[in-house]
Amino acid sequence: MDLGGFLLMRQELVLLAVILLLVILEIFMSNKKALVNMAIAFFTIHTVIGFIPLEDGSLFGGMFHTTQLIHLFKNVLNVGVLIILLQSAEWIKKEIVAQHKSTEFFMLMLSSLLGMYYMISSGDFLMFYLGLELSALPIAALVAFETSKRVSAEAGIKFILSAALASGTSVFGVSLIYATTGSIYFSDVAELLTYSNLSLVGFIFFFSGLAFKISLVPFHFWTADVYEGAPIGVTSYLSVISKGSAVMILMIILFTVMKPFEVVTSSMLYIVSIGTMFIGNLFALRQQNMKRFLAFSSIAQAGFILLGLLSHDQLGISTVVYFVSIYVFTNLAAFGVIQAISTQTGKENMDDYNGLYRTNPKLSLVMMLALFSLAGIPPVAGFFGKFFLFTAAASQGLYFLVFLAVVNVTISLYYYLLVIRAMFLRKSDNPIPYFESKFTMKLGLILAVVGVLFIGVYSPIYDYIYQLSIF
Fold first, then answer.
1. Distances (CA, A) of 228 to 25, 38, 235, 296
2. How would residue 2 be classed by pLDDT, with cut points 50, 70 and 90?
3. In which band, very low, low, confident or very high, does the pLDDT at 400 lie, cut at 50, 70 and 90?
4. Alpha-carbon torsion, ordered 408, 414, 416, 421, to 10 deg
5. Which of helix, strand or coil describes residue 31?
6. What is the rounded average pLDDT of the residues 368-382?
7. N or C: which end of the chain has fewer CB within 10 A?
């Protein structure tokens, strides 16, 4: 294999180099706060390199492959992680550097991202499983990163036990699929797979494992507790990066490998989508902690994503990728505000946001923009994302499902407006005082807001995604 072949893994190799460089700097550098800035700078360089065009191709006999669409999605993940690191920098310097664990935070997060790269570029179930485990194990450590807090340790235990069960379930499903086809390569399985009870059970088990990472009902029970107990930066990562990569690989497998099961998968996704939307939205109505609030919001958003997966064509593919890209920026804008306030004041409840506009108007406006996008209010990006999802579902004649989705949009609008009412209309005797965020936090929020506005207003982005090759 020549050097040009290895360059197909350029994103993976550069990210691995960044991780190894951080290990070396951790040994020789004594100024850990400066190391935080250097880590963000190195990852920024990696993100920029990712936008250099890359050809389609495969390696290792088809175990690893990349296309223009996969390359684009990796860039979306890179930008999302960069925003998370920028938003978390102040918290790391304030809380984590004193505990001598700042470099470990970057290493774990970037190692998890590396696993997601391999997962979405996998060409067989072995590479998929290696990527899945490499992405999940560092997250378990990140969730329990604040060892001084009991709630963080509890969240870590809940996550790793749930992740282990989900991983075992997926592997068992893969073993059943292998038993019916005699191969683990996606291309071979797509040709050899036939409809049978054994292969159907295998797919159900495999789907259940991925549904855990996406927080689909009824595999969502871990989500709220883990989101609440984890550090906010890790919660952001779980909400957008982990979920986005799982949606991508599920879409690839549904539209290629599991094509013979299209009728069965459509019925399954139909039912799961309805349950996920309603459970997520109805439980979000009663939440007071902002991280639990956005946890159930993210569950509901996963239900909307399934509308795109029900359209087994180019429209469905481009719609899902477009919506997930919007969701990354939108959710990170909301979590960024929560992290800025929590880092300065330690407050995370909805009632604490009463009168926020009077003391911190800029943060209030960013949160309002993010919530409007999550609710699907024009002209921000979330409106176009949901519109295209509804269009994809309607193109398959799923009008009743679209109607139920519109009902859920109405429900979600109510509880998103609860936060906006608290910030703009309610008064507080002890409001959150005015404070100035650090430069990195401001830059992270600006990037998230620009992404929400740019993707929503600049519609040719959707056209560009639509024109890319399928897989």
1. 32, 29, 8, 11
2. low
3. very high
4. 170
5. coil
6. 86
7. N
Question: What secondary structure letter does DSSP report for 230?
Answer: S
Residues 6+ apart with CB under 8 A from 345: 352, 432, 433, 435
What's the residue count for the chain?
Answer: 471
Q: How many of the other CB atoms lie within 10 Å of CB of 312?
A: 18
pLDDT at 1 over 60: no
pLDDT tens digits, residue range 232-271?
Answer: 889 999 899 988 899 988 888 888 888 777 788 888 888 9
Instruction: Spell out the residues 6+ positions from residue 364 whose beta carbon is closer than 8 angstroms to its own.
Output: 356, 357, 423, 424
Nearest CA-CA partner of 143 in 182, 88, 193, 105: 105
The answer to whether 12 and 117 are in contact (CB under 8 A) is: yes
**Both tokens of residue 412?**
């979600």
* Rounded (to 5) percent helix, strand, coil in the chain: 80, 0, 20
Helices 262-284 + 197-214 axis angle, to 10: 30
Contact 87, 335 (CB under 8 A): yes
d(CA 117, CA 74): 7
Highest mean pLDDT among 312-321, 356-365, 424-433: 356-365
459 DSSP 8-state letter:
T
Peptide bond preceding 53 in cis form (omega within 30 of 0): no
DSSP H helices, 241-313, are 243-252, 262-284, 290-309
